[in-house]
Amino acid sequence: MLGACLSLSVLAGCGGQQAAAPAAAPAPRATGAAPAKPAAPAGQLARADVDRVLLQGPPWILRRVPVEEVVRAGAFIGWKILALPADWSTVELKPGDVVTQVNGKALERPDDLFAAYRALASASELKIAYEREGTARELVVPIFGPPSPETVKTFESDSPPRRPTTSRPRGTTVIEEDDGAPPLEDGAP
């Protein structure tokens, strides 16, 4: 089963931290320059980054964050983070932490995972409940900016968004059989 780390790692990996700092005054813009995208204040996730990660889909996160299921006394507890990418070193979560919920949703079944993932398209914060060395903790990271109508619409259906595909999926092997006929010359019918 896929894990809770999907939602948490994707978004937390975008640079969020628990402590929020006051926003700095915006730098003056040069005249004639294109308007700059507003940056998220320290300790917050930029909505554009959240949307970009959500549209990558859960497999993107699972390739970056290996997890394993944690069961105690026959009951599902959560997903243990086995490793995090080096570029996520500022994230409060660490390998060994057990994620129990994302935005109040337990992630025991794949449907639970997708529901939590989908809800992030319109959420105003990312809230991750987790255990570290047996102690319950919570990471709360505000999401800076309003939800994107396009991203929200993408996640309105009950199925994951379709990613654009190339002519042939990666990892596909094509086996062409030799029919014994001589090869055709360029332009031959």
Topology summary:
Layout: H1 5-12, E1 45-46, H2 47-56, H3 58-64, E2 67-72, E3 75-81, E4 98-102, E5 105-106, H4 110-119, E6 125-132, E7 135-144, H5 149-154
Parallel strand pairs: 1-7
Antiparallel strand pairs: 2-3, 3-4, 4-5, 4-6, 6-7
Helix pairs in contact: 1-3
CA-atom Rg in angstroms = 22 Å
Q: Calculate the mean pLDDT score and round it.
A: 75
Strand content: 15-25%
Largest sheet: 7 strands, mixed
**How do the helices and strands follow one another from N- to C-terminus?**
HEHHEEEEHEEH
Uncertain parts: 1-35
Helix content: 10-25%
Description of the structure:
With 189 residues, the protein is an alpha+beta fold. It contains five helices and seven strands. The protein has helices spanning 5-12, 47-56, 58-64, 110-119, 149-154, and strands at 45-46, 67-72, 75-81, 98-102, 105-106, 125-132, 135-144. A hairpin with a 2-residue loop joins strand 6 (125-132) and strand 7 (135-144). The longest helix has 10 residues, at 47-56.
Produce a short descriptive summary:
With 189 residues, the chain is α+β, with helices and mostly antiparallel strands. It is built from five helices and seven strands, in the order αβααββββαββα.
Keywords summarizing the entry:
extended, single chain, alpha+beta, 189 residues, 7 strands, disordered N terminus, seven-stranded mixed β-sheet, 5 helices
